[in-house]
Amino acid sequence: MDVLEEIRRGLANLDDSGRMLPIMAMPATAPAWVFREHGTFGVAIELRNDRLVAEGFVGARLATVERMVDDVPRRLLRLESSILSLRNEFAVVCAQMVDAGDNGATRAVLLADPVAWWDRWRHLLGNAVITQSSYATLAELLALERLVKDGQDVDWRGPLGGTVDLVTFDAGYEIKSTVSRYESRVHVSGQFQLAMAETRKLALVHYRFEPSVSGESINGVCRRLGAAGVSAALLDDLLTRCGLEDGCSARNETFAVLESRLYPVDADFPRIVPSSFKNDTLPAGIVHIEYQIDLSGLTSVVF
User: Fold this and answer.
1) Least C-beta-crowded within 10 Å: which of 19, 134, 179, 234?
2) Phi-psi domain of 167 (left: phi exceeds 0; alpha: psi -120 through 50; beta: other)
3) For a pLDDT cut of 90, what percent of the chain falls above it?
4) pTM of the predicted model, to two decimals?
5) Is 218 in the same domain as 81?
6) Looking only at Cα atoms, what is the longest distance across the chain?
7) What is the DSSP code string of 100-162?
């Protein structure tokens, strides 16, 4: 039986207990296992270092885990999915992932840079990345850092689905970002996003980034926030909610900040909120509104 057939049989027949079934067709110098665990399934190989990997796109994930295999604690690199109806197709990618190659050369390349292997497959399959764009989260973290430096007690609500991204004792801050040099339009997702301005101070902060080989990164800002007294565990939890868990390569992507500007959401700032309608109520049959605002020409200050 070849490797692909073993993987397909294992995915079909294993229960959800997490048992690691060795792939017998693999050479002893490059072991690999098939597993099913709590609704996920896939293959695993052993890592010999403490590198963290946490990459995901729709339908699949590559991640490092700690598991017991044959009563021995092992650090594993797992390729996993939860779409059972496509397990036979997924098995083809699994077989390529565990392949040892001549004298273990293919396995060595994978272990040297698992993220590079992942990116090649992701681009080939044309699948959609499920994580939020890293620069959008970076913008929220930079704004959080600025407010913390100003001595503000800040609640980062963006990852929790808050109406606005950052809230202090007396104000709210909605954070927008772009990697376009000239785009001045921002997307407002709902009639409530800017409604806070009806009852308390609200500002929209707009960051303009440029991808760069050096500059600001999520992990870099998190280190500075940690040094400033912000809980590292809390930041990690919130980033995980954004799909940017520890080990995700997007957390090390770097951007140059071209500009950051603050726009007061006041009486002159264009917006659609419940009070825009008669009796503060959307027209019958309308349940949600999304729209774009052109920031060019609006009053702003450097943030």
Assistant:
1) 234
2) beta
3) 50
4) 0.70
5) no
6) 75
7) --GGGHHHHHHHH-HHHHHHHHHHHHTPPB-SPPHHHHHHHHHHHHHHHHTT---EE-GGGT-
Same domain? For 155 and 287 the reply is yes
Are residues 160 and 39 part of one domain? no
Buried b (16+ CB within 10 A) or exposed e, 209-238: beeeeeebbbbbbbeebeeeebeeeebeeb
- Per residue in 5-40, pLDDT tens? 999 999 988 888 888 999 999 999 999 999 999 889
Read off the pLDDT of residues 243-263 as tens digits, 9 standing for 90 and up: 888 888 889 999 999 999 999
Locus of tokens 């991204």: 165
Q: For residue 113, count other CB atoms closer than 10 A to its CB.
A: 12
Nearest alpha carbon to residue 29 among 86, 100, 88, 97: 100
- Reduced 3-state DSSP string for 229-252: CCCHHHHHHHHHHCCCCCCCHHHH
Residues 103, 138, single domain; the answer is no
Same domain, 23 and 111: yes
* Domain membership of residue 274 as a residue range: 134-302
**Helix axis angle, 3-13 to 87-98, nearest 10°:** 130
- From 125, 158, 189, give the residue that closes a domain: 125
Number of domains present in the structure of the chain: 2
Q: For strand 60-69 and strand 255-264, is the pairing parallel, antiparallel, or unpaired? A: unpaired
Out of 90, 125, 160, a domain closes at 125
**257 and 185 housed in the same domain:** yes
Q: In whole angstroms, what is the distance from residue 136 CA to residue 244 CA?
A: 12
pLDDT digits (tens, 9 = 90+) for 127-170: 544 444 689 999 999 999 999 999 999 999 988 888 899 999 99
